[in-house]
Amino acid sequence: MERVAVADLGSNSWRLVVYGYEPDTPWWSLVDEIREAVRIGAGMGDERVLQPERIDRAVHTAAVFASFCRASGIDTVEAVATSAIRDAANGAELLDSIREHSGLDARVISGREEARYGWLAIANSTTIEDGFGLDIGGGSIQVMRLADRRLAKADSLPLGSVRVSEEFLPGEKATAKAMKALRKRVESEVGALGWWGQGGRIVGIGGTIRNLAVAVMRRAELPLDDVQGFRLERDALEDLIELLADRPASKRGEVSGIKPDRGDVILGGALVLAAALDAGGCEAIEVTEAGLREGVFFERFLESA
User: Fold this and answer.
1) What pTM does this model have?
2) CATH class of 127-287
3) CA 285 – CA 288 distance, rounded (Å)
């Protein structure tokens, strides 16, 4: 068995995932995982500058990832950086510091590449043939159109949960006016693509969507092994939005199923999802456990299979 690690340096969470696979066979499995809420994209402002305390946490987390891989004898590590680092004026400086202190050599991927990895995750973890994909990250969202299981169209929009929460929902209280403005922005930008949704089947990836699905399943008292294949209905999402909006930001992480470190940005992410569904005239989104890191792994794995 060969092993490869994928480090996903996202705008909100950073994850190191280790996969085991046998070349020339269809067999693979997830071996290990480390997650840290680095929140590298927090506080960037209009200048798009990564903040010192976030940089320190990022460098430390990268060192932990690299040490784990060395201790585990894992030589192949694919590290990818997404929206926040991609857009940051000092993103290259952060990656240089990570390389110097940990030896972890991360590459910045474009929004189009991020969407492509999302498509690989969706196409290899669901049965969808024709439809759409949505990935809600911390800094951006990736929207995809699939035709005959291939990626037909893709775009990346600056509507991630951290970014919209800082712009529209900065305080403890979420006002109806602010939430309406956020929805309007998302519907406008997604709708302007001209090809999104149109009532077709939609598959969602990313931590925000998975976390919302878990919260909805908990509220419905459904058995919770994983969220793979769960159909997150529009009405259930709206009920959850109402529950979250009634609480101050510091208390939203106490809602059953919501990860505490996502509490302050989960309402923003939920509103983005609801507005994207509205823009596409869709009543639900199908959830998959796979994500960007699986897409990065599948690219390597499928080449060897």
Assistant:
1) 0.94
2) alpha beta
3) 10
